[in-house]
User: What shape does this take?
Amino acid sequence: MPAARFVSAPPTGAGAETVHCWQRTERARRESIARARQHEPVAAYSAANNVTQQSWSRIVAAVVKLALVSFVVLPAALAGCGDSATLPLAAGTGPRPQLPPPHKTLLPTVNIAPAKGWPAGDKPAAAPGLVVTAYATGLDHPRWLTVLPNGDVLVAETNAPPKPEDGKGVKGWLMKQLMKRAGAGTPSANRITLLRGIDADGSAATRAVFLENLRSPFGMALVGSDFYVANTDGIVRFPYVEGATRIDAAPTAVAALPAGPINHHWTKNVIASTDGSHLYATVGSNSNVGENGVAAEEGRAAIWEIDRRSGGERVFASGLRNPNGMAWAGDGTLWTVANERDELGSDLVPDYLTSVRDGAFYGWPYSYYGQHVDDRVQPQRPELVAKAVPPDYALGAHTASLGLVASAGSTLPAPFDGEGMFVGQHGSWNRRPYSGYRVIFVPFANGRPSGQPVEVLTGFLGAEGEAKGRPVGVAIDKTGALLVADDVGNVVWRVSAAAR
Assistant: This one.
């Protein structure tokens, strides 16, 4: 059978949204053909005009892929597809978020803030009463931070490892290109850098390579003289001597964590219990909503507990699609921020901050926010949905809330001087308008989140929708200032109280 030519009209009976999406992608297809023929006449024209017509969605995806080849027509190909939020971001934030019905579209909403970096002399905007300075610049995709007892600051310079089986096919290829546009396509530096002291201009007085030749490192924790690193495939331990600026010793394996050729959510975080007896590690899911199969999700979408002495390990809590930051509250409760599922519209599903209960199940992939069933997941598990624990506090849909640190030890003034948590919101790629791209403070009362969040740092997006920076990890330094890792600006920012 000869290959069908590209469809010349949207499907019969298509709604206005689908027609608009088709019009935009068709216009982009024509532009991309014209551009590609100038460089590779035969191959490009064949690829564009001999697409197998098996389904409308596959055809549209193929058009988008071709449009991406010419890069400049990506916005034209996607801007008309997906949806826009009908609720303000605040409606999906707080202890009782609004959860409208899912809004499924022909193609997922794609609204990328292209990574540009900071123009010379520019920086984020700090809240009144605060001042922000660059503590370290010229880093290589800094993602995570930890502060040692002597005040040294450690920065994980890292990115995704090779993932040959993640996102295969046209849609997967498309997503990889979009992530590159968002600033996540560079090779991983695989190192941890040490920053020490502070000069008159606010920058670090000393900078040294602390550890290198790691495997997409992320979380870090120090217990006594044992320094732990969460690589993408497991936790390793190094001997640490106080004041050292470099570790050359070989690592000792502590616990293997799920990785493999898909490794969809690759970041692994680690913190120690308050008494140092256990480690807790985050492991994100291997898909959006289980589309890679149950076997691929073994041990994932969970927080693990690891006994430091015996090496014994178990799943502490599950059903957390992509947990990242973890922190201990003053009452000894473990808290985490988790990124919820995509492709249910710009208003769903809010990322969240929640306390983590031993043995609890938080819904993924079968449901979200308790018993809100996701019917894309089949077969369902009603017995699990029935016991799904709703999270404590919504952080807004698609905000990509990653960084988390308790306010204990902070010297920032009111309203940031009380009990609460700081959250680094990396920013959306699939919501219209954008969400996240800021650092917020979630106030607590009596050990629970209370009220709306307060912005700490904003201004990460430029006037044209470009990402000058994207905040990730957050930490409190020994002076009580807030540190923020910015993996697009390649900066660690330091936020402190303004001089009076």
